[in-house]
Specification:
single chain, Heat Shock Protein 90, Ribosomal Protein S5, domain 2, 3 domains
Length: 490
Amino acid sequence: MKEKIVVPYAPVLVESTRSIGYSFETAVADIIDNSISADATDIRVCFMSSEPQWLRIEDDGRGMTEAELETAMRYGSRSPGDARSKDDLGRFGLGLKTASLSQCRKLSVMSKRDGRVAAACWDLDYISQTGEWSLQLWSEDEVKNLPGYPFLEAHESGTVVLWQNFDRLQQESANVQATFDEKIDLARKHIALVFHRFLNIEGGRAHVSITFNGDPVKGLDPFLTRHPATQPLADQVLRIKDEVISVKPYILPFASKLSPKDIQSIGGTDDLRQHQGFYIYRNRRLIVWGTWFRLIRQNELGKLARVRVDIPNSLDFIWELDIKKSTASLPSFIKKNLVDIVRNAVGRSEKVYRYRGRNIQKDTLTHIWEPIDKRGAFHYRINRKTPIYDMLTGCMDGKGVFLLESFVKMLEDSFPYADVYYHLAQNEADICRSKSMDFDEVYKIAEQMVQQIRAGGGDLFQFLKTLEQIDFFVNYPEVITKIRERYEDD
């Protein structure tokens, strides 16, 4: 038997690796991973959307020497099995090349270390001409004419990654500039979520600044940890060999308690259901989110539950983390440890929906609709003990009371559960906050109740005192104030 070294044909292999599956936003995130791993605190995404389009990612990290840059530009520069720093966000030693060239045909990287600047370039058209792994290197004088050099000149160290010749963008769209702008917008939102724990100061760790053409990116907190109505549950720790996986569930507030800014920061009400589930972080960098890994099904009542899972990069192999660092699989041998955590979190989410944030043990309201549990089957019944129901029946003879009771039972039996559920899922915030009656209509109802109490010799003072305990009037505090001002001296 004899041995022969077969070197992959560069033009074919490079073109093939462009189709690994990066989206524009995941590609940008992969480059920022390298910046953060290099201890950068100032990361700038600069771009030009008009012809010719280009994108540049600049950072003030520790930079690379010429030899280190050549290694970084080599395909497969590091083995995924190599030991890494605990804060390293890298994985396969392919991200810089595969992420960049999935979007463009020309990747240039310049880096400054120890006062010297080195630069190298992968140009797919040049590789196609030479048929070789032809990495272009610039001299120190040539580097000074490259875009991004002024940034390096102003910093002691750092790296600039430049993307040019967006061939696929030109192929997929007739309006390249508009499409490029859309991709930039998606990338900005993606970065705000994926790196939110770096953008927001956490646990005294250093703050990282990321800007898009000078505009700062603010981290989006998917757990609303600063919201007073968010319920953080107990931390859980899972141990695998000598490594620790930290698990912390959160229950988000009901939508009626969220401001428009809060809703925007969690992706909007339409995305609440899709974004429930696990949020997997690798060294504080968000990898996967919005899935229960088939431990349970996604459902409306569980959509306030989100479970943060922190894994170290030393456990990449058990999560089957892909090159893009955007997908992972839940290891089967830790599923059983997470089932109880998930069920508890979803149970808490269901309670928030069931009671809408109120503690029923302390609830002193008189409710128009009462939930009735018949051996686990719930339905709603109109409360016959409300003041207006008593007043109404007091004005009727026996036949009238019988007809009223028959009509109320018809209402109860035909309660549109499915329709309410559907509309709540579609736009729950508007349903929770909507008022179907205006001030004058509600005030007229309250005034008629006052007149009936007067006519019947009832206790008007007590009625006015307890008016806010009727859940119908709770939604109309201005009516309560006005009716009291009008009649409290009578």
